[in-house]
Design a protein that fits this description.
The complex is a heterodimer of chains A (434) and B (418). By secondary structure, chain A is mainly alpha-helical. Helix content of chain A is 72%, strand content 1%. In chain A, helix 4 (52-69) packs parallel to helix 6, helix 6 runs parallel beside helix 8 and helix 11 crosses helix 13. Chain B has one domain (15-34, 43-405): Ammonium transporter fold. In chain B, helix 4 crosses helix 5, helix 4 packs parallel to helix 7 (172-187) and helix 13 runs antiparallel to helix 15 (329-353). The chains are: A mainly alpha (434), B mainly alpha (418). Chain B: Belongs to the ammonium transporter (TC 2.A.49) family. Rh subfamily.
Chain lengths: 434, 418
């Protein structure tokens, strides 16, 4: 850890700077060149500045939303937020570069706000996959995974967008389903038999769950921006905002209902509330800019909420037991299944003629390509990480901040005090105390 | 032993919620349509900004503002999100129907979602007063009734009392407070002292969570107060005045809290509530005030009233009437809201008296009328809702289970003594 992580990080950052030095220029320089050639293009910069608020929203989602969503583990809060920041910062540089290279066919890349939004999107895939392997992977492994995953993602996105010409404005398939299945494949390769019985540190306390709720709310509030950020026309943008909004509100209602339905004595489960309330935003992503009407968006959102809660309740235990895939944050239920639902919903929407931009076959091909690339890429990445990059030697270091962070106080004692102070009422003896 | 456990929610909550959502989808199917007119990119972006700011206030701000109870943090945040989602869908429909009087389809614009979010805020304010004393089913019922009454009240304000949209929205604080207080009154009659003292206290870390919510509300309040104003000049005035009123009330609140306590210590609960009072009080008149000092004076007075209320109300008023106001909604939103309403009337009279003397009485009548309409409809609807919520169908939690997350949430990892 002492050598491998700083070395990897510094080498990667230096190579980023070198790559940027050779290939990346500002959009304004391109405009200057075009003005010399007497092509007036001042509207492009205006449009670029209009996008800045949307970019800011997506940025908040990536750093605050995804970061805090994963803080639910009792002893892994520092790493969740901290490593989230690290890989997002690396990922958006690499994403800018690799997407630019693919779309400009190796020529100089002129970056504007739109490139920054797309780079943030490519980071989102890594953060989703990070949720699946959370606590079981070292920062050095995470850096390598970031590099490989974004390259694979950019390739898949190019295939879906340019070759299939499929419509995927909120990127349910290319980001959410892709990120989830990639992460699951990596988690499957890195599986350790000890995880089957449950890990003693893999649990949450009252306040860590409240912190996770901050992340949920940030994601929930800004999801309309995420789905509408790369819309081409104002009409599409309007449609994407409205559809996402109604899908999210409908999803909240069904997620609560089903959480209560599958719980003991009708009680709610915090894990469902943190995650399933967002499934509506994921599922509506692909068809957000189509004319599916508010009720259509609400139906998609309701289905996504139900699927997500049922996935948490029944599918995740099954995955761990039967398929030996341990999914820490349940990304399969928040991003994987709703992403697939989104892809299917877009096919149904096109059958009902809600959009003329794409065809059924192409949407299906896009969904298949995203899932296939993700699983194959994830398996290969997992093997690379397992055999070539040094990871955690034993499962006793899993889900523990003190392996990577200087924790000035003993984490164990603080947490125990915390729990006993806040939850004195849960211990039997305190019931009879004054 | 049976009474020690809260009644199971499994039979009723999922059923009612799913039926409700299905009904909403059907209504949306028949009665809503997109806005098909061409969109101006600048205007769309502007409206979306404001909508985003208001959503941040209601989802994050109100969610965490009420999370200061030691054992009720999960419910505060999560129930808030649920009520918001439900309230918005219902308010979009109600707004559309009442505005266009059932003739044609409701056109969904971004501004109608913005309006609906603001209407749904009334539920969240009231939920602060009944926090911990009602289950999700009762809150659902309360949300439906409250949104309906509030939207109807705004329609009456606009059509019969010729109020503009901004002003009728700014009575939300007074309306929602008295609605919530009345519901809390009917729910807290069987509240015994022991439960209250044991559970109704704040812990240090959850106080910090509440501060997170407070700060988000504080930061975005100028957007809320200027959200429904269309004239750019009025909008600018509203933002400036709210900004300065909030600053003044924050300073006042913190210093008065220190002054009121022995040994000059600051009370965190006062800070949560009182620093927002300025924004509430300046709401109705924020577009009319032309000088910052007036807004700051209003903020100062709101801070004083709010701290005063925090010190006196729980001991005297609430105790005598038997109202248990969990989050201090009365002195956060209610009293500053009344102050704001009165300040608006005075300001209108002052402005009008330069022009014509005969209109004064009319303006006075209209101003006082709308303010008391907001208060009266809040009180009456609140009492009626409270009566309904006490019915057996709602499966109200036993008073011993008030203010306790355990009644509603699964704690797999903490189930030590249960």
């Amino acid at each position: 850890m002492k050598l491998s992580f700083p070395f990897t990080a510094i080498v990667l950052e230096i190579s980023m700077i070198v790559l940027f030095g050779f290939f990346v220029k500002y959009e304004t320089e391109q405009n200057a060149i075009q003005q010399q050639l007497n092509i007036t293009n001042s509207t492009k910069v205006d449009r670029s500045l209009e996008l800045h608020p949307l970019f800011r929203d997506v940025h908040v989602m990536i750093f605050a939303g995804f970061g805090f969503l994963m803080t639910f583990l009792r002893k892994y809060g520092f790493s969740s937020v901290g490593i989230n920041l690290l890989i997002a910062a690396l990922g958006l540089q690499w994403g800018t570069f690799i997407q630019g290279i693919l779309h400009h066919h190796g020529q100089t890349i002129y970056i504007g706000i739109k490139n920054m939004i797309n780079a943030d999107f490519s980071t989102a895939t890594v953060l989703i996959s990070f949720g699946a392997v959370l606590g079981k992977i070292s920062p050095a492994q995470m850096l390598i995974m970031t590099i490989i995953e974004i390259a694979v993602f950019a390739g898949n996105e190019y295939v879906v967008g340019e070759i299939f010409q499929a419509s995927d404005i909120g990127a349910s398939m290319t980001i959410h389903a892709f990120g989830a299945y990639f992460g699951l494949a990596v988690a499957g390769v890195l599986y350790r038999p000890d995880l089957r019985r449950g890990h003693e540190k893999e649990e949450s306390v009252y306040h860590s769950d409240l912190f996770a709720m901050i992340g949920t709310l940030f994601l929930w509030m800004f999801w309309p921006s995420f789905n509408s950020a790369i819309a081409e026309t104002t009409e599409q943008q309007y449609m994407a905002i409205i559809n996402t909004y109604f899908s999210l509100v409908a999803c909240v209602l069904t997620a609560y209902a089903f959480s209560s339905l599958v719980g003991k004595r009708g009680k709610l489960d915090m894990v469902h509330i943190q995650n399933a309330t967002l499934a509506g935003g994921v599922a509506v992503g692909t068809c957000a800019d189509m004319e599916i009407h508010p009720y259509g968006a609400m139906i998609i959102g309701s289905i996504a909420g139900i699927v997500s809660v049922l996935g948490f309740k029944f599918l995740t235990p099954c995955l761990t037991d039967k398929l030996k895939i341990h999914d820490t944050c349940g990304v399969h239920n928040l991003h994987g299944l709703p992403g697939v639902v989104g892809g299917l919903a877009s096919i149904v929407a096109i059958v009902f003629r809600a959009s003329k931009a794409s065809s059924v076959v192409m949407q299906a091909a896009a969904l298949g390509s995203s899932l296939g690339t993700a699983i194959v890429g994830g398996l290969i990445t997992g093997l690379i990480l397992r055999f070539f990059v040094c990871g955690l030697s034993s499962t006793e270091f899993f889900f523990d901040d003190s392996v990577y962070w200087e924790v000035l106080y003993s984490v164990k004692n603080v947490n125990d005090d915390y729990t006993s102070e806040s939850f004195a009422h849960l211990k039997p003896q305190s019931l009879f105390a004054s | 032993m049976g009474s020690k456990y809260p009644p199971s929610m499994r039979r009723c909550l999922p059923l009612w919620t799913l039926v409700l959502e299905a009904a909403l989808i059907v209504i949306f199917f028949f009665f809503t349509s997109y806005d098909t007119s061409s969109q101006d990119p600048k205007k769309l972006a502007g409206t979306f900004r404001v909508l985003q700011d208001v959503t941040i206030m209601v989802a994050l701000g109100f969610g965490f503002l009420n999370s200061s109870l030691r054992r009720y943090g999960w419910s505060s945040v999560a129930f808030n999100l649920f009520l918001l989602a439900l309230g918005v869908q219902w308010a979009v429909l109600m707004d559309g129907f009442l505005e266009q009087s059932f003739r044609k389809k409701v056109v969904i614009k971004l501004s109608s979602i913005k309006l609906a979010t603001m209407s749904a805020m009334s539920v969240l304010i009231s939920a602060g007063a009944v926090l911990g004393k009602a289950n999700l089913l009762q809150l659902t019922l309360m949300a439906l009734v409250e949104v309906t009454v509030f939207v109807t009240m705004r329609m009456i304000d606009r059509q019969y009392l010729s109020m503009d949209s901004h002003l009728s929205m700014m009575h939300i604080h007074v309306f929602a407070t008295y609605f919530g207080l009345m519901v809390a009154w009917s729910l807290s009659r069987c509240l015994n002292k022991m439960v209250m003292e044991e559970k109704n206290q704040t812990a240090k870390s959850s106080s910090l969570f509440a501060m997170l919510g407070t700060l988000f509300l504080w930061m975005f309040w100028p957007s809320f107060n200027s959200a429904l104003l269309d004239v750019p000049k009025e909008r600018k005035n509203a933002v400036f005045n709210t900004y300065y009123a909030l600053a003044a009330s924050a300073v006042t609140a913190i210093s008065m809290s220190a002054l009121a306590r022995p040994r000059g210590k600051i009370n965190m609960t006062h800070i949560h509530n009182a620093i927002l009072a300025g924004g509430v009080a300046v709401g109705p008149s924020c577009h009319l005030i032309t000088t910052p000092w007036l807004a700051m004076l209003l903020g100062f007075m709101a801070g004083l009233i709010s701290i005063g209320g925090a010190l006196c109300l729980p001991a005297s008023f609430n105790h005598v009437l038997g109202i248990h106001d969990t989050c201090g909604v009365h002195y956060t939103f209610g009293l500053p809201g009344l102050l704001g309403g009165i300040a608006y009337i005075l300001l209108i009279i002052y402005e009008v008296s330069w022009i014509k003397k005969s209109v004064i009485s009319y303006q006075l009548f209209i101003g006082a009328g709308t303010l008391s309409l907001a208060m009266a409809s809040g009180l009456i609807a609140g009492v009626l809702t409270g009566l309904v919520l006490n019915l057996k169908i709602c499966k109200a939690p036993h008073a011993a289970k008030y203010f306790d997350d355990q009644a509603f949430w699964e704690f797999p990892h903490l189930a030590i003594g249960f």
